[in-house]
Amino acid sequence: MNFHQYYPVDVVNGEGTRCTLFVAGCEHQCRGCYNQSTWSLTSGQVFDKQMEDRVIADLNDTRIKRRGLSLSGGDPLHPANVQAVLALVKRVRLECEGKDIWLWTGYELANLTAEQHEIVSLIDVLVDGKFEKDLADPSLPWRGSSNQVIHRLRC
Ligand code: SF4
């Protein structure tokens, strides 16, 4: 998996202070997408073990109290990203006590594959659905258009 941006201290993608990772790769091609540079799976940089370790260390860094990890993109549930994202969320669950995980995807919860569901079973909040330009509303918290749904799965 590749990624485009990693913000170790972020307050705009989910509740509280967070670590936020924007992965590469998206097949939805939403009209009006602001992140077209992330569509290619080969764009950005490789998300390697060193980066994975850094995310875990940042979440556990007690000098800045972070509420959790946010995964966006691109699409963290792109089939080519599922293995790496699953490995990351499993580590957060095992190694980062008390941290929540938010994930944004263009897929819809009702139509996910078994592999995508395995990730969703480990996260707290899923924001799903494609960005629909005609339904865009900048006043909506944590989503770009009103068709997208915030699913609070564990909290
Ligand atoms: S799901 Fe997100 S990144 Fe993918 S095309 Fe739609 S708006 Fe862009």
List the helices and strands and how they pair.
Elements: E1 2-10, E2 18-23, E3 45-46, H1 49-60, E4 68-72, H2 82-95, E5 100-104, H3 114-120, E6 125-128, E7 149-152
Parallel strand pairs: 2-4, 4-5, 5-6
Antiparallel strand pairs: 1-2, 1-3, 6-7
Helix pairs in contact: 1-2, 2-3
The protein binds iron/sulfur cluster.
What class would the helix/strand composition place it in? Answer: alpha/beta
Which ligands, by name, code or SMILES, are bound? iron/sulfur cluster
User: Can you write the helix and strand succession as a string?
Assistant: EEEHEHEHEE
The strand line-up of the biggest sheet is 3-1-2-4-5-6-7
Q: What's the pLDDT, averaged over the residues?
A: 97
Distance between the termini: 28 Å
Q: Strand fraction band?
A: 15-25%
Show unreliable segments.
Answer: none
Classified by CATH, the class is: Alpha Beta
**How many distinct helices?**
3
Rg on CA atoms, Å: 14 Å
Q: Characterize the largest beta sheet: strand count, sense, and whether it forms a barrel.
A: 7 strands, mixed
Question: How many domains?
Answer: 1
CATH topology: TIM Barrel
Query: Which architecture does the CATH hierarchy give at level 2?
Result: Alpha-Beta Barrel
Q: For this structure, what is the CATH homologous superfamily?
A: Aldolase class I
- Which term fits the overall shape? globular
The helix content, as a percent range, equals: 10-25%
Give the tally of β-strands: 7
